[in-house]
From TrEMBL:
Keywords: Signal. This is Choice-of-anchor B family protein. It comes from Sungkyunkwania multivorans. Pfam families: Por_Secre_tail (PF18962). Residues 1-18 form the signal peptide. Transmembrane segments: none annotated. It comes from the Bacteria. NCBIfam families: choice_anch_B, Por_Secre_tail.
């Protein structure tokens, strides 16, 4: 939601280049449960500036279809940053796209991806429009960081709060676009990303803050195959705060299906369908001071014409919830000062209005100072959709953090024809072995920057024990006889 432009920000300016396991409830300075910190890039690097008016905001991701490399796209107050995270332990800041010339720095930038392009809007930024960036420019950047250029900027809008894209149909939905006579949703055809075309809109229910748009494949047979927009229309603690369901299949004639309300609204913010389209789960951004702990609302939308409040989940902290997403039976929430919360919703059917079956199964608290109910600090967004399982958190203060479920960072399988290495991960010592018929001459151990940490020569043995108890936790490369290198994790 809209906030004052002056914030007191708890700044953590740190860039980490090695895995920091979650151990004893902490990953370095960050409280955690079952999620390790792989690396981070600080806000100053991403934004190219620092200070109380600079924050990180939205993030999204892109997977290159040519080689499967993963990239994080990070919004900041000043610009959009692009990071190669194909090696999540050593991310590379490739460069940035400056905000539209003549627009102002802003707290609200939102990004979505379609057809190898990023589409970027900004709120309260003047004549920013919608930037279109060709993500294939991220391939083969030889001397990062660089300044990128947009393919085009769609100027049919000025400032927009948010953007949703239905990747199945190629339409974008710009919402909260002040100054163009439509604060609801504006429909944009992205068939040609370099030439976005306005094809209609929906404004019958006032201001839309966020939306999800899908091609429906759920239990309500009347709408199968239809394009459905679910809009979160937050206006701030009144009966006008509601969730709107709209059939947008015909862009020239969108039809409202229904609306849903709930008790004690603060600011209807954002929501996401479960994979079976039976439930729509919603976060309210400002209700915590009056409600207590973080509240997440679940609507049964088996009948899209009659959405019903199914259950309410209360989290373990008082922090304010922001964006949420669902993969399978897992709900990922960015809850500002309490960071990323991971919630098991597998027993959702057995929840009721008086009983909730959700269970928090993990978290990574990117803002360790407190869990207060404020929108001024902490995790803005969490992107959990990378095939690798790596998750990117955009934290207003810390910048970008890459995390991963504990125990899932793989190490190469031993090649018995070269050498074996065990235990791995290790804490005290690690043993290197080759066949009894062979001999090891040299062993070197380096960090991921290529700096040699330990080296041994003239060994002439089939096995050797490397003392690792003095090494910092993280990931190293072990090379035998200047040949094959393997990854070693020190925990």
């Amino acid at each position: 939601m809209r906030r004052l432009l002056v914030l007191l920000i708890f700044s953590i300016a740190v860039t980490l280049n090695a895995q920091t396991p979650c151990s004893g409830g902490l990953a370095g300075i960050y409280p955690c449960n079952d999620y390790d910190l792989l690396s981070s890039i600080d806000l100053n690097t991403l934004a190219g500036a620092s200070g109380g008016s600079i924050i990180a905001n939205d993030n999204w991701g892109w997977v290159d279809p040519l080689d499967g490399k993963e990239y994080a796209i990070m919004g900041t107050s000043t610009r959009t940053a692009f990071v190669d995270i194909s090696d999540p332990l050593n991310p590379v800041f490739l460069g940035h796209l400056q905000r539209t010339s003549g627009s102002s720095a802003n707290f609200w930038r939102d990004i979505k991806v379609y057809n190898n392009h990023a589409f970027i809007v900004a709120d309260n930024a003047g004549a920013h429009g919608m930037q279109v960036f060709d993500l294939t420019n991220l391939r083969n950047v030889t001397n990062p960081p660089v300044t990128f250029t947009a393919v085009t900027t769609y100027t049919g809008v000025n400032s927009c709060h948010n953007i949703a894209i239905n990747e199945g149909t190629g339409y974008a939905y710009l919402v909260g676009c002040g100054g163009v006579g439509n604060n609801g949703a504006i429909f944009i055809d992205l068939t040609d990303p370099a030439n976005p075309i306005d094809v209609g809109g929906y404004n019958a229910d006032g201001y839309t803050h966020d939306a999800q748009v899908i091609t429906y494949a759920g239990p309500d047979i009347a709408y199968i195959g239809r394009e459905i927009m679910v809009a979160s229309n937050g206006v701030g603690g009144s009966s006008d705060d509601k969730i709107i369901f709209v059939n947008v299949s015909d862009k020239a004639n969108p039809i409202k299906i229904s609306e849903a309300t709930y008790p004690l609204p603060g600011y209807a913010h954002q929501g996401w369908f479960t994979p079976d389209f039976r439930y729509f789960i919603v976060g309210d951004e400002t209700d915590e001071p009056s409600i207590g702990n973080t509240r997440t609302l679940v609507f049964d939308v088996t009948d899209l014409d009659n959405p019903v409040l199914h259950t309410t989940y209360f989290g373990p902290t008082t922090s304010t919830d922001h964006n949420l997403y669902i993969i399978g039976d897992t709900l990922y929430e960015a809850n500002y000062t309490s960071g990323m919360r991971v919630i098991d919703i597998s027993d959702i059917d057995n929840s009721t209005t008086t009983t909730n079956t959700f269970t928090e199964v993990g978290y990574f608290d990117s803002f360790p100072a407190n869990d207060n109910a404020t929108t001024s600090n902490g995790a803005w967004n969490v992107y959990p959709f990378f095939p690798s399982g790596n998750i990117v958190i955009s934290d207003q203060d810390a910048g970008m953090l890459i995390v991963r479920k504990s125990g899932t960072l793989s190490t190469p399988k031993f090649d018995r024809n070269s050498f074996s290495m065990y235990p791995n991960p290790a804490s005290e010592n690690v043993t290197i072995e080759v066949s009894q018929t062979k001999r090891i001459n040299t062993i070197s151990l380096s960090n991921l920057l290529g700096q040699t940490i330990l080296s041994f020569d003239k060994l002439e043995s089939s096995s050797f024990v490397i003392p690792t108890n003095t090494l910092a936790k993280g990931v190293y490369l072990v090379k035998v006889d200047n040949a094959l290198a393997k990854k070693l994790v020190i925990d």
